[in-house]
Write a structure and sequence with these properties.
- The chain has 448 residues and is α/β, with parallel strands linked by helices.
- It folds into 4 domains: 128 residues, Response regulator (Rossmann fold, 3-Layer(aba) Sandwich), CATH 3.40.50; 159 residues, P-loop containing nucleotide triphosphate hydrolases (Rossmann fold); 79 residues, Helicase, Ruva Protein, domain 3 (Orthogonal Bundle); 45 residues, Arc Repressor Mutant, subunit A (Orthogonal Bundle), CATH 1.10.10.
- It is 51% helix and 12% strand.
- Helix 14 crosses helix 16 and helix 16 packs across helix 17.
- The termini are far apart.
- One of its GO terms (biological process) is phosphorelay signal transduction system.
- It comes from Maritalea mobilis.
- GO terms for molecular function: ATP binding; sequence-specific DNA binding.
């Protein structure tokens, strides 16, 4: 059941009392207040009813034949808030009940309105607890988010809490952070934890937009193509690198966000859109506003809530943990043993500034595993290879291709073009080597 459905569902109560008239009276009271009620005359069937009925609160008499309502407080099974009532109540009993975990205690005769207030408060607290647990479980299962949020630093804990808090609201979110800190993965986590999770998540790289093609791509063309706003209808539109938009595009985007409507090319009729805006920037937007490159009114529309992603060098305690995580991941991917980090390699990791943040560390971990697969390598060597390769493409496929190209080229040079020796050194077959040389567009004659 989604969070939205959970909020719309009427509260459910399990009422336990051996007095039939009292059971019916309580049932009528709660039913008139919009509750759904299930009745029991004793506590013997409570655990079964908890599984079947899943109540939001239990209302039980204390003194009943066959068992006391106080026993409900000691069930092994997790229970919703328990409100106890008794005609024989006294202060010691109330103190015992509250200490044992009762939500509240009422003595008969009780004020019906007070009982309803207590039951409503108990049920609301139960729903809130359930929603929080459900969000945390969903967060833990998110694909990819652990690659960014793995760590024990206080900064990471704050980001995790913000994702959970902000995902349940419709407010626009601005994610700021350096390149490689995982802004898009955080945006996807916010979407996946929201009540829009079953609807589209559309990502736009604003750095690729030109003024001439913006409206076609974003607003679409009448009877021809849907723009990204309509593609994201009901879901989330992620505006990555929003600081790179030129002023004309910023103005058009602001109007669409303010009025929640777009006009496709070729149409004179605006269309309303229902999207949640999540944006990201690796540039400080305050500086961009001060320099006149970013509209202040657009900034306020995008930044109702802000998540600042910490860079890797500010959380040194997480670096070794992250490296071990990625080494294990790539060792499984490449079907080899994960290399053990020695003291020198750990010192190398901690001494590095990691300008590429988690993305750079992940690439170094992959190269370290691939080197270990051939029986050698080190963290420092993997870092040097990163520098020699220059700007590694951001996608995994391109990064691996670039790395393979460099390794094969070096092996060809080392073994002076003897392809059997090259294949053996790389741990692959001769046919596979030939296929990779063709695929990677390597010219053997230029390497020798």
């Amino acid at each position: 059941m989604s969070d939205a459905e959970q909020k719309r569902r009427p509260f459910r109560a399990l009422v336990i009392d051996d007095d039939k008239e009292m059971r019916l009276s309580l049932s009528h009271l709660l039913d008139a207040a919009g509750w759904r009620v299930e009745l029991l005359s004793g506590i013997t069937q409570v655990e079964q009813k908890l599984n079947q009925w899943q109540p939001d609160a239990i209302l039980s008499d204390v003194r009943m034949p066959g068992g006391s309502g106080l026993e409900l407080l000691h069930l092994e099974q997790q229970t919703p808030p328990i409100v106890l009532i008794s005609a024989h109540g006294d202060i010691p009993m109330a103190v015992e009940a509250m200490r044992a975990g009762a939500y509240s205690f009422l003595e008969k005769p009780f004020d019906p309105q007070r009982l309803l207030r207590i039951m409503n408060n108990a049920a609301e607290r139960h729903r809130l607890t359930q929603n929080t647990q459900r969000l945390q479980e969903r967060l833990a299962k998110l694909s990819g988010i652990d690659r960014v949020l793995l760590g024990q630093s206080p900064q990471l804990q704050t980001v995790r809490e913000q994702i959970i808090d902000f995902s349940s609201t419709p407010a626009p979110v601005l994610i700021s952070g350096e390149t490689g800190t995982g802004k898009e993965l955080v945006a996807r986590a916010i979407h996946d934890l929201s009540d829009r999770a079953d609807q589209p998540f559309i990502a736009m790289n604003c750095a690729t937009f030109e003024a001439s093609s913006f409206e076609r791509m974003v607003f679409g063309v009448q009877n021809e193509s849907l723009g990204t706003f309509m593609q994201a209808e009901g879901g989330t539109l992620f505006l990555d690198e929003v600081a790179s938009l030129n002023p004309d595009i910023q103005a058009k985007l602001l109007r669409a966000i303010e009025h929640r409507e777009i006009t496709p090319i070729g149409s004179d009729k605006p269309q309303s859109v229902d999207v949640r805006i999540v944006s990201a920037s690796n540039e400080n937007l305050d500086d961009a506003i001060a320099a006149g490159r970013f509209r202040e009114d657009l900034y306020y529309r995008l930044s109702t809530v802000v998540i600042d992603l910490p860079n890797l060098r500010s959380r040194k305690d997480d670096i070794v943990l992250l490296m071990q995580h990625f080494l294990a991941h790539y060792a499984t991917l490449y079907e080899t043993a994960a290399p053990e980090l020695d003291a020198e390699e750990i010192a190398t990791l901690l001494a590095h500034d990691w300008p590429g943040n988690v993305r750079e560390l992940r690439n170094v971990a992959e190269r370290r595993v691939l080197s270990a697969r051939r029986g050698g390598g080190s963290i420092s060597a993997s870092m040097r290879l990163d520098n020699e390769m220059g700007n590694v493409p951001e996608t995994l496929r391109e990064a691996v291709a670039s790395f393979e190209r460099s390794l094969i080229a070096k092996a060809i040079q080392t073994h002076q073009g003897r392809m059997d020796a090259v294949a053996e050194a790389l741990g692959i077959g001769r046919r596979t080597l030939n296929e990779k040389i063709v695929k990677l567009n390597l010219d053997k004659s230029e390497l020798l």
